[in-house]
Amino acid sequence: MFPKEAEKVAFCGNDNPSAYNMSRGLLSNVCFLDALNLVPHVFLLFITFPILFIGWGTQSSKVQIHHNTWLHFPGHNLRWILTFTLLFVHVCEIGEGIVSDTRMLTRHLHLFLPAIMGFVAATTSIVYYHNIETSNFPKLLLGKY
């Protein structure tokens, strides 16, 4: 993942002039689909990061969490199992993208950047859910529906 010589970094790489060509349709352009996959993760991260940091700053000094009275929401175990499965899939995608990128002539960010952002988004979502669950305030989950 180290920069190859002095190259410009492009999302779809510099060695494919047809990477931004839409003549075959949007759904056949892999680079466009990877960029489209990146949009919701980045958008939701801009929303959840401030909520998490504001929530941690206000809760940590005022609320003592008693774990023996902590009630799990319905589906708690299933949510954690599915989230860790998703994180494992993202780690595999990141590895696949990095290995594929090392075989290219130029850097192709679309091979691993969406998986990295998906990993960060999944991690952020489970931290958000954990904070809501430990504070016993399920009304904050309504924003997710």
Automatic annotation (TrEMBL):
It comes from the Eukaryota. Keywords: Glycoprotein, Membrane, Repeat, Transmembrane, Transmembrane helix. GO terms for biological process: potassium ion transport. Belongs to the ABC transporter superfamily. ABCC family. Conjugate transporter (TC 3.A.1.208) subfamily. GO terms for cellular component: membrane. This is ATP binding cassette subfamily C member 9. GO terms for molecular function: ATP binding; sulfonylurea receptor activity. The chain crosses the membrane at residues 31-58, 78-99, 111-130. The keyword Glycoprotein applies.
